[in-house]
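User: Show me a protein chain along with its predicted structure.
Assistant: Here is one chain, sequence first, then structure tokens.
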Amino acid sequence: MAKKLTIQLPDDLESKLTAQAEKLNLSLEDLIMQLLAQSVKLADTSESDPILPLLGTLRF
């Protein structure tokens, strides 16, 4: 079952997202859905791999 969500975007963010959606030939809604899905996937990955938070923290 899909859940309807209404959000308010600041004008500058809406402009940037709309421009990106147009470049990708997507609707603004589809772009935001893809970005949210990617964000959740990344969060799931970082939770399952204990090494990920350490990447980039070592200095040579």
